[in-house]
Write a structure and sequence with these properties.
Two copies of one chain form a homodimer. Chain A has 275 residues and is α/β, with parallel strands linked by helices. Helices cover 26% and strands 23% of the residues of chain A. Chains A and B meet through helix 2 and helix 3 of A and helix 2 and helix 3 of B.
């Protein structure tokens, strides 16, 4: 996962925006699609094709609603396209499930409550232990074969009897992190147990509380409701998004959420948020 | 057709670029798709959906390869989408055919030679007769019921016996025009009879003549070949496009074509070309 890009949902133009914001397609090995409304996946066929045109060889894993498979198959078939890389389609189950258990991260899906079947995703970065300082390792003459021991925090005793302290040749590695992407959803606490204790929760808020009736009618949430979820999940940070285009000013979303939950970010396309 | 936008092919991001360049979606009533390679239609689902989200009521006609129909149907079905407007899918036949015969324009498709089934389109703007000068018509007291006669070039005799000359209240209307869009194609003269005498021919030239072998292998054309078609079709103007992204400078395309055919334009996204 370090240096890897996990792509969650892929609206039209994603491939262009990724290039614009310097995200490398070749760093993407896993794509997660929450549901089959166009703004969440119409960029997928283009991205998958472009990767092939550029001669990608690394496998690509797609986790998406099962109904997408025949659509993707048909799109490739009518164009007589054979992808340059192995492409694995993993249909999402109806309920919660562990999707990926990689040495560096774990991805779980959980159902949310939208007009059509829709899933959120919990991404958990695993700790990888101590981080090596390669120059220092070389300086102290530590053989590469011992590097895994260093990552576990062990010291190294040289043949001349000199003890190399672990902290001289390593530093703290990245800490484990939990990121919950709650997709498009009506206000519901059904997935609270899954996202409990997340470092960052992304929760949609298409509307402000004044339009709560619209939110219900369209299976979306308000900023207040998103904050309620973050609070009850004991999250450290709330990332708001999916604002209706009718609102020109996004600051009221932050204000409404901050009344309930203190650490709120309003997501802006192309921005980077520390989890 | 006057004030109407005919959309030929619809790559990813077309809806965004149309907004950017001030082309109104509501002016589009006919969309033509040449073939099912992604760069020619991946923007279609998004455009069709967005029109519906904005509450379009006017019918939309899509002319495209038959294999696109089940894909579009599936995309709408999995999203549980019912479009807000009547949407008509017209499958393209294998050969040439008249697709639309509107009072103001005619659209014909013709097969070209590409890796998969692919069509070019001939758009013929019909003459609409004389163009009314509304202020002058009012000034001379001509009733609106007589306007159609004025468009046909007739004079008007008032009740007081005064003869209003046609040229006082009308001016020359738009002349008929022929535009041929030759899509993605290997060099072929098979469609020369259809596009003969076109005012403007759009012909792809993915490559320069130095890469003619690549053009053949990939079912594309060179700038020289495009110019050859324009010359043999007795066109007035050649519009070049679909350049391989490996070329950073497009001027050599113009130069190569101009050796054979004098009036060449290199198409640039967002530009307007008089037909």
């Amino acid at each position: 996962m370090y240096g890897e890009v996990l792509l969650i949902d892929c609206g039209e133009g994603t491939q262009i925006q990724m290039q614009r914001f310097g995200l490398k397609w070749r760093s993407v090995h896993h794509i997660f699609i929450s549901h089959l409304h166009g703004d969440h996946y119409f960029g997928l066929p283009g991205l998958i094709n472009s990767m092939s045109l550029l001669g990608r060889v690394a496998p690509l894993h797609l986790y998406a609603p099962a109904e997408l498979k025949p659509i993707m198959d048909a799109i490739l078939e009518v164009a007589d396209t054979v992808l340059s890389y192995p492409f694995y389609f993993h249909p999402l189950p109806e309920g919660s499930a562990l999707l990926v258990d990689d040495p560096s991260f774990r991805a779980t899906c959980f159902p949310v409550d939208h007009r059509i079947q829709c899933h959120g995703f919990l991404i958990e970065r695993k700790t990888k232990g101590r981080k090596l300082l390669p120059d220092k390792c070389t300086e102290f003459g530590i053989p590469a074969a011992y590097y895994d021991q260093l990552k576990l925090g062990n010291d190294y005793e040289r043949k001349d009897g000199f003890l190399v302290k672990n902290e001289w040749v390593t530093e703290d590695g990245p800490s484990p992190k939990k990121y919950a992407y709650c997709a498009d959803t009506l206000f519901t606490d059904s997935f609270l147990p899954v996202i409990q204790g997340a470092d960052t929760i992304y929760h949609e808020c298409t509307y402000l509380e004044a339009d709560a009736d619209k939110a219900v009618a369209r299976f979306h949430s308000t900023a207040k409701q998103a904050a309620e979820i973050a609070k009850r999940a004991n999250a450290k940070q709330l990332l708001l998004g999916h604002f209706s285009s009718k609102y020109k000013d996004l600051d009221p979303f932050r204000q409404e959420a901050e009344v309930i939950f203190p650490n709120v970010q309003v997501s802006i396309e192309g921005s980077v948020y520390e989890i």
